[in-house]
Amino acid sequence: MINKKLSYITYNKKIKFLYFIKKQFEAGLSLFGWEIKSIRFGKINIENSYIKFKNLNIFLLNLIINPLNNLNNKNIIKLRNIRLLLKKKEIFFLFNKIKKEGYTIIPLCMYWKKNWIKINICLVKGKKKYDKRKNIKEKEWKKKKEFLKKNLQIQ
To answer: What's the confidence (pLDDT) of residue 16?
Structure first.
């Protein structure tokens, strides 16, 4: 799913805790020049962003890109709808999943692929509280198991 060779710009850590990831897609972004410069310097926040459909186009909302200090700040909009570039088949697939089955689309990570900025978007379903507790218990048990293995090998 996630390739280790790609250089990540930002990664949303909360997603795996809050949602079940069903399917992932790679999408291109339609950005301005100043946005790319700011992204190169890491002035981006993907945490609260989400994806919506408008007229069978797919847009990324609430992506915060802070401009660099040396830029002319007159024509800069920090929060704007950024169009995602996907194939028609993928757009229709996502649209149908959202309308019929109640899924949500959320960006997982943003990365460089050669000299292009790509975003990894996920088709997700929300977790209930008991699912989150179950994950916490499993993580704690794995830690405890590793600790016990380590201690038994020493003695």
So the answer is: 83
